[in-house]
Amino acid sequence: MNAIAKFLRSPIGQKWIMALTGLFLVSFLIVHLSGNILLLLPDNGRTFSAFVDWMESRWIIRILSILLFLGFTLHIVQGILLYRYNRKAKGARYAVTATDNSTWSARHMALLGIGILLFLILHLWDFFFPMKVLKAFPHQQLYDEVVQTFQNPLWVIAYVLGMVVLGLHLSHGFQSAFQTLGIRHPKYTPFIVAFGKWFSILVPLLFAIIPIALYFKFS
Amino acid sequence: MKIEWIEGRTLDGKVPPGPLHQKWQYFKDHQKLVAPNNKRKLEIIVVGTGLAGGSAAAALGELGYQVKCFTFHDSPRRAHSIAAQGGINAAKNYQNDGDTIYRLFYDTIKGGDYRSREANVYRLAEISLQIIDHCVAIGVPFAREYGGYLANRSFGGVQVQRTFYAKGQTGQQLLLGVYQSLNRQIARGTVTMYNRHELVDIVIIDGQARGIIVRNLLTGQLERHGAHAVVLATGGYGNIYYLSTNAMGSNVSAAWKAVRRGALMANPCFVQIHPTCIPESGEYQSKLTLMSESLRNDGRVWVPKKMDDVLAIRNKQKNPRDIPPEDRDYFLERMYPAFGNLVPRDVAARAIKKVCDEGRGVNATSRAVFLDFEDAIIRYGKSEASLRGITNPDPNTIRKLGKEVIKAKYGNLFQMYEKITGVNPYEQPMTIYPAVHYTMGGLWVDYELQTNIPGLFALGECNFSDHGANRLGASALMQGLADGFFIIPYTISHYLADKIRIPKTDTNHPAFDEAEQRARQRFEKLLSVQGDQPVEYFHRQLGKIMWNYAGISRTAESLLQAAENIRALREEFWKNVFIPGKIDELNPELDKANRVADFLELGELIAIDAYHRNESCGGHFREEYQTPDGEPLRNDDQYAYVAAWEWTDTSNPPILHKEPLVFENVKPSTRSYK
Amino acid sequence: MKLTLKIWRQKNAQDKGHFETYEVDAHEDMSFLEMLDVLNERLIRQKKDPIAFDHDCREGICGACSMVINGKPHGPLPGTTTCQLHMRHFKDGDTIWVEPFRAAAFPVIKDLMVDRSAFERIMQAGGYISVNTGSAPEANSIPVPKPIADKAFDAAACIGCGACVAACPNGAAMLFVAAKISHLGLLPHGQPERYIRARKMVERMYLEGFGNCTNIGACEAECPKEISLEHIARMNRWFAKASLIEEG
Could you give the CA distance from residue B92 to residue C76 in angstroms, rounded to a whole number? Predict the structure, then answer.
């Protein structure tokens, strides 16, 4: 076990932590999206509520949510550590910076990460915190709370922006995780890169459609 | 104005007895050895980290000697061996085309125009086999065939394919292999590496080389280093011509300090002009770039037959592509049908100069000829099309496929050419012109690579030993590695075997005081001139004198002129050079001035040597000595010797020592590539 | 062509440094370094301190030249070192910013000269194949599949200039280290030490204070020898295997 600990403390190991937690969070996005997409069904939230009900009654989901929390924390803390480490390693900055040798999002992963963190706080503040911590409403009411939240156009804009930031973060992060883990092969990497590109467009897009649709449906 | 020298003694090359093919074996069988426990007590200084120095330091470190290795670069990997493009020869006979050790030996002796020592050259050919084995083992990624076995190509002056290569970066790959081996020894602690340190003097105690004085180029501090033997592997002096294919930092200073301490400079006039370099573009030009000889495997050299076409091309009114084949003069193929475009370098260089002197040069300066790949592109395109099963390919497909083959073989060279000239060589023929590339002359060494100063050894281009009056392509890399990996480890132990009781050199010895004092005074003197002209000015002037009066072809008259002009320039240098900055700091101008000052002395010796050698051979072409059809005329009766010059004091004429060259195995004949 | 140069001048490692402006008249067939030579010759004639920069072979292979031109190591052309960059790629009237390679592990020595000795120490940590002179088997006794030999060559083409570090916003040296690990580890002769080499070189890389790779790709884009990020993936894989699975 010492070997694993030593590896994870090494900078490549730390990158592995970023990559593994990142891919785990990506898998969470898929689960989250498959639940959220039910909001779009024209059944006044019946299926969505049933899904929430099911989630709430499963221990495995409780455990997964703890893992999720840990995953987020690890990804964030490790990200901050790496950012500080790299700032120090770069030292002085250039007077002129080239921008055509890499993508904007690749160079600004930390900034995008902070953007996602802010969005996450907003998002938890809206639903998770009042429902799970303050017990301000039971989970059966979640659908109504969601619908109500997205009657405010500012909230819709905030969520759409959040998804743009997420998309940019994913556009680099997805394929980057595979590169970090050393999963690269001339025959398969083009697929991973293409998949990552589509994933980083489609998933945030579908997420973003939900508040927009709810806004227009009920206003 | 006249050139004078004093006749000296006859030198003994210490060639072992026995038949040619057993001499090296004889030496190894009878040499003295140093036991492992004693090797640890012996210190060796190696100056230079190119193929010769790097491999020597690594191999000596492996044996357990305490090695101190010096380079003026920031890393051993930057030595100019890195720039060698084409390849390395070895008589492996992997192509089954009749190659043997003897044939490699013979080609090298003949290519060198019978001015090298038979025994050395034979040993080089023998060792060539081990070099390839070892380089593959240390991780050199040589080109391979699809079956996984090593590939070969051909080079000038030979009729077999024996050149191993790694694209057009063979020197780089070999040097990295050597550098890696060197790093292994640095990690093991057997080699201590001193980067950004330049040799400024050699310390001789009781007639033996026992140390060096170096300048730390970052701080300007002079440092003393002692050892039981000193190995110089500091390259050639081609940079004396200012424009050459050498790196900007390449210099003669280490070797020249040895000369000033009594070592002999052998055959300095044997300078190789490489036929295929990118022509000069203006006064600001700082160096010339070589286009590998391997290009002559596939490129055809030509100029237009008609002057109208020449002028039209110069004025850019005509595209060389539009000159029909019958109006082109493929002059190398015409003059030398047997070897065609693959004649040795000196022959090709003179032929190019000749057609340009006739006024048929094809660029604005009239000093350029075409190197054309169109025929090769078509030829390869057709064969590639047939390989891919394309029947009746159209011309565009053929050209496309052909270009791909050419790109795989010479891609990086073509890219380099386009970067420098802005012309795409896949579409337009290259323009090329000869430039100084390599110096066959160098410190005189015996069979053991030891100079006439005991304990002072010289390896690689720094010595004179293996290439005679002209070096064949892909032989420099071979020699550097042979000297460093496979010769010096044996011969130095022969020297050191009776030095095991000598304690470590005391760097407080008066000889160190004296040498350091001398070095300091020299730098102080350089800085004290405070004249008006930068060092660059003098270097450029010297280069012009050398090229115009002691270049591709020379006459007694031009050489007298060269000597006179150099002396005048040297005087002006010491009166009017301006060097900014101080002595005890990073000062690249001061370093350069120190090197140029040495070139200003060597230049005169080159002129003297070229003047004294009343014959034409290899890279030394005296216009007075040529056959009616313009081929060089050697004089074996009078000049079959190595001219080793002693010149410790430039105010007196140099002393000419001679090592007679005895040919027991090959009969010197007129080199013919027709 | 008339150009305005903004060149970083710094007396020594301790000096803060600043940009100085120079007007130069350049010819389009000059190389970038020849343009600086001409400027330096002018400065010397004016009895001023010439600009210090590393350079040697001037044919793009020794890896000595190191400067950042308009924010790009070795300037605007892909696959080109500063010494091979010619002025025809600039326009009359251009302003050109010239800075040293920047990374904490590459301290400035003077002006545009930086100390890249950290690379030496990384190489000494394991960038070699442990074979003594004289013990090699016959060269053709181990065939190397051409694709492997070609891939090893592509990695071995690294000139050790440090442009990857200079380009990397994180000051990481991953491309340099990965190229060497890949080159030696791919060849059969270097395979016995493949994993230990990867581990030792990577560990040394961190000790030297280089940053960590975030797969930005600027190194690959600016590398004068166009070395692929593929090698970094391979290094990540081998380093993990060296740390987690390999014995010793």
Answer: 44
Q: Measured between beta carbons, which residues in chain C are less than 8 angstroms from residue B422?
A: 29, 86, 88
Give me the torsion for CA of B233, B238, B240, B244, rounded to 10°: -130
Could you read off the pLDDT of B584-596 as tens digits, one per residue?
Answer: 999 999 999 999 9
Going along chain B from its start, the domains and CATH numbers come out as: 274-435 (no CATH), 510-657 (1.20.58.100)
Assigned fold of C2-110: Ubiquitin-like (UB roll) (3.10.20)
Domain span including residue A135: 2-218
pTM beyond 0.90, yes or no: yes
Q: Which of residues 35-74 of C touch B (CB under 8 A)?
A: 35, 37-38, 41, 44-45, 47-50, 52, 54-64
**H/E element, B9:** strand B6-10
Per-residue model confidence as pLDDT tens digits over A109-121: 999 999 999 999 9
Which candidate from C6, C19, C103 shows the least CB-CB separation from A90? Answer: C103
Q: What was the pLDDT predicted at B47?
A: 98
Mutate to test the interface with C, among A7, A75, A87, A102 (most CBs of C within 10 A): A102
What CATH number is given for C117-244 in this structure? 1.10.1060.10
Arithmetic mean of pLDDT over chain B: 96
**Nearest-CB residue to C128 (from B74, B184, B489):** B184
Residues in chain B: 674
ipTM confidence score: 0.98
Nearest neighbour of B139 by CB, restricted to C47, C110, C183: C183
Span B365-402, pLDDT tens digits:
889 999 999 999 999 999 999 999 998 999 999 999 99
